[in-house]
Design a protein that fits this description.
Shape: globular
CATH architecture of the largest domain: Orthogonal Bundle
CATH class of the largest domain: Mainly Alpha
Number of domains: 2
Radius of gyration: 18 Å
Largest sheet: none
Number of helices: 8
Low-confidence stretches: 89-103
Structural class: mainly alpha
Number of strands: 0
Length: 179
């Protein structure tokens, strides 16, 4: 699968618009979730991802061959941060993390109420973390990126990812000790 993804990026970098469309189809949902979390707006996230995909279609030569998901996440992250800087709202970087949509069995009313309260508490606790720690928590636990991928997305050393993630977990543990 990894070889197929790398081949897709190599084809896209050489100007194959079908490969760019394949990248958009395969990675678009991940890019959208990251953009939505960063921008805190469905519409702005949709527009941001559309801008990124349009740019890839217009100039596929900007796609480095051999890179994949982490490069796209980095491009999305940078694009969203640029949008936030223009709006001068970096304080709102990664405010609330939205529930992932997954098919689950229907819980009872008590379970639903408890789970909803827990999710709200977790979202609020994560939103209260410093900017970099929020980004790391989101990328690790909601996007499933490895430490190396997170380091590449955020442009920080790998060991820093582990340190900041540890600090963030400790802060979350203290804030959420009642659950």
């Amino acid at each position: 699968m990894r070889e197929e993804n790398e081949a897709l990026f190599v084809r896209a970098a050489s100007g194959d618009l079908q490969a760019v469309a394949g990248i958009a189809t395969q990675y678009g949902p991940d890019l959208f979730r990251l953009a939505r979390c960063l921008l805190n707006s469905y519409e702005e996230a949709r527009d941001a991802v559309a801008d990124i995909i349009a740019r890839l279609c217009a100039d596929p030569g900007i796609i480095p061959s051999g890179l994949s998901r982490s490069w796209l996440m980095r491009v999305t992250y940078n694009h969203c941060v640029d949008l936030l800087r223009r709006r001068k709202t970096l304080q709102r970087l990664l405010p609330k993390i939205y529930d992932r949509t997954a098919v689950r069995p229907q819980p009872g009313p008590e379970q639903t109420a408890l789970k909803t309260a827990e999710q709200v508490s977790v979202r609020q606790a994560v939103a209260g973390l410093p900017e970099q720690e929020r980004a790391i928590v989101f990328l690790r636990y909601y996007q499933g990126l490895s430490y190396a991928e997170i380091a590449a997305v955020l442009g920080i050393p790998g060991p820093t990812v582990g340190t900041r993630l540890h600090r963030a977990r400790e802060k979350l543990r203290k804030r959420l000790d009642h659950f």
